[in-house]
Amino acid sequence: MKMIRDWLDHAACRDADPELFFTVGYDAQAMQDREEAKAYCRRCRVRAQCLDLADQTDVEDGLWGDTEKDKRRPPTRGDLTEMFYSRTKLLPGGHLEWTGFFTKRRCPVLRAGTKNLSAYRVAFRLCHGREPEGHVTSRCGQRGCVEPSHMQDSVTRAQPAA
C-alpha cells in the first residue's frame, strides 16, 4: 500500500473533484468535464502508474491515466450493492448517511479493493439501473445523502417534476 500512496502523492489530480474523472454522456457539460479531467492527466507525471492501477484492479468507471474505460480491458463487477449499503446509516426522513471513505473534498467514495468509485454514481446506478450522465447530485439537498432514490444526473435534472 505504501508504494501506491507514494505515487498518488505526485498525481496532478490529487486535489481535484473526483466526479470530473467519472463523466458519462456527451452533452456539453460532460464534454467540458472530460476535457478538464484529461488536462489533469496530460500534465501528470504518474499517468502510467495510474493506468496500471486501473488495469490491475479491473476499475470499470472513469478516466485513469488519460484512458477511458472503453480503451482499457473489459471490467469485472463485484457485489457493489452489498458493499454500498454496508457503508451507510439510515437517517430520519429517508436519508442515507455515508459512513465510508471520503476524499479530501468530502466526496463519498466506495473503496472496492484498491478501486475508488463515487458513492453518488454507485447509488444512481442502484436506483436507475443505468450509468449516470454528467454530475450526480442529491435532489433532497441533504448534505452527504447517498440514498439511491435521491440521486439525479443531468438527464433526470432536466426532466420536469411529476
UniProtKB/TrEMBL annotation:
Classification via Pfam families: Whib
Chain residues that bind [4Fe-4S] cluster: 13, 41, 44, 50
Domain 4Fe-4S Wbl-type: 12-74
Signal sequence region: none
Keyword Magnesium: no
UniProt remark on cofactor binding: Binds 1 [4Fe-4S] cluster per subunit. Following nitrosylation of the [4Fe-4S] cluster binds 1 [4Fe-8(NO)] cluster per subunit.
Compartments where located: Cytoplasm
Family per record: Belongs to the WhiB family.
Protein name: Transcriptional regulator WhiB
Native organism: Streptomyces abikoensis
Phylogenetic placement of the source organism: Bacteria, Bacillati, Actinomycetota, Actinomycetes, Kitasatosporales
